[in-house]
Amino acid sequence: MRYWWANQNKTYKNEVHGGFLWSPKTKSNGARNRFYDNMCEIAVGDVVFSFSDTRIKAIGVVTELAQSSPKPDFGTAGIEWSNDGWLVQVEFNELSSAIRPKDHIALLRPHLPPKYSPLQDTGDGLQSVYLAAVPDSMAIVLQELIGSEYSSAFGHLINEVDSSDVAGNEHDTALQGRTDIGATEKIQLVKARRGQGVFKANVRLNETGCRITGITDPLHLRASHIKPWRNSTDTEKLNGCNGLLLAPHVDHLFDKGLISFEDDGTMLVSPSLEGDVLEKWGIPSQLNVGIFRSEQNVFLAYHRSEVFKN
């Protein structure tokens, strides 16, 4: 296990809520950047200390190695960054009591790395740092300062959906044969079909949990396309508004067109669904899950007309 420090002043809300780290591959002038190169050194199980607004506000555990990826839906943040970058999946756990390293710099100063340190000797952060390695001795001090909440970060790893279906593999093979897109796009389109990668990160920026069951732990949720992956354009396949976070049994019903949603959140139930399924799964037959964003409504209209079994 290694330890990392992520300076997320611009992207804290997006990355922590979306469950990822993202950086460009190079500086705007094309030069290498040690703090971007570090993205490719992260391993599954590594710990990430999330630093924002002078405080460590969350702890993360890496769940997937770095992959080439277009920039997630950051909004206005990072408009100057290249669209080609590295994406690392991380499950974050926000701290109820954020710690301010500057208040504890006397304890931390002896353990700061001599090169590529995330902090100055004064305890102030460094704007030029995105992702920096944290020495083990420094990590131990941070763990002690954070206290019991540190261990809770390890209970939120995601088990990725098993997508080894035959039809899916055929889609993957077809993608690999395309010559109109690059390797980065191919990787992320394959991962999007499986509910992973930048698509999953983008969905989590719009949805906080399963609207039907109320479950919010990503361990028990799937990122499901509203407009099916096979019918979507390349852009739509990665669009976070073309997705919902759903519990596996709800994802099954939605994917098969046995339920759908009106724009106002009213759940629609297909007459093709056996009458006792919802009852046995504890799902009310009449339910409103809350309104959707206008961008989501475009995809929901497609689902109602082309997927839902009236």
Strand fraction equals: 15-25%
Mean pLDDT equals 87
Largest sheet: 7 strands, mixed
So what's the CATH class of the largest domain? Alpha Beta
Task: Characterise this structure.
- The chain has twelve helices and eleven strands.
- Strands 1, 2, 3, 4, 5, 6 and 7 form a seven-stranded mixed sheet that branches.
- 29% of the residues lie in helices and 20% in strands.
- The chain folds into two domains: 3-155, Roll (ph1033 like fold); 166-307, no CATH class.
- With 310 residues, the protein is of the alpha+beta class.
- Helix 7 (183-193) packs across helix 8.
- It has helices spanning 12-18, 34-37, 105-108, 136-146, 149-152, 166-176, 183-193, 197-204, 234-238, 248-255, 277-280, 294-307; strands at 3-7, 20-24, 47-52, 55-62, 67-70, 84-99, 131-134, 222-225, 243-246, 259-261, 267-269.
- The longest helix is centred in the C-terminal third of the chain and has 14 residues, at 294-307.
- The protein is globular and about 70 Å long.
Tell me the layout of helices and strands.
Elements: E1 3-7, H1 12-18, E2 20-24, H2 34-37, E3 47-52, E4 55-62, E5 67-70, E6 84-99, H3 105-108, E7 131-134, H4 136-146, H5 149-152, H6 166-176, H7 183-193, H8 197-204, E8 222-225, H9 234-238, E9 243-246, H10 248-255, E10 259-261, E11 267-269, H11 277-280, H12 294-307
Parallel strand pairs: 1-3
Antiparallel strand pairs: 1-7, 2-6, 3-4, 4-6, 5-6, 8-9, 10-11
Please give a handful of descriptors for the protein shown.
alpha+beta, 29% helix, 2 domains, seven-stranded mixed sheet, two-stranded antiparallel sheet
